[in-house]
Amino acid sequence: MRWLLIQFVRGYQRAISPLLPPSCRYSPTCSAYTITAIKEHGALKGAIMGIARIIRCNPLVKGGYDPVPNHFTIFRNKRARDEYRRSMNLK
């Protein structure tokens, strides 16, 4: 199941994403985040995390650095974001 979901996301990355303007507000992109989440947390939890990330990626959020957390959660990885900002001397 993992392989199938990853191939679906990679198909999106190769076929559909190049046709659309870049609009992801996060780094890594939502599709890369989903692939990593599926690899680290399995098909079901990874897919849930990816869908939650896509829902969060909208014009009302600031965006920024948001890697896949080590534990399952549908919320943003604020600790990694704050560490990244401190390391880059941002806010």
From TrEMBL:
Chief localisation class: membrane
Keyword field: Cell membrane, Membrane
Subcellular location: Cell membrane
InterPro entries (alphabetical): Membr_insert_effic_factor_YidD (IPR002696)
Pfam families documented for this protein: YidD
GO cellular component: plasma membrane
KW Amino-acid biosynthesis (keyword) present: no
Topological category with respect to the lipid bilayer: Peripheral membrane protein
Protein family membership: Belongs to the UPF0161 family.
Function: Could be involved in insertion of integral membrane proteins into the membrane.
Protein name, as recorded: Putative membrane protein insertion efficiency factor
Species this protein is from: Nicoliella spurrieriana
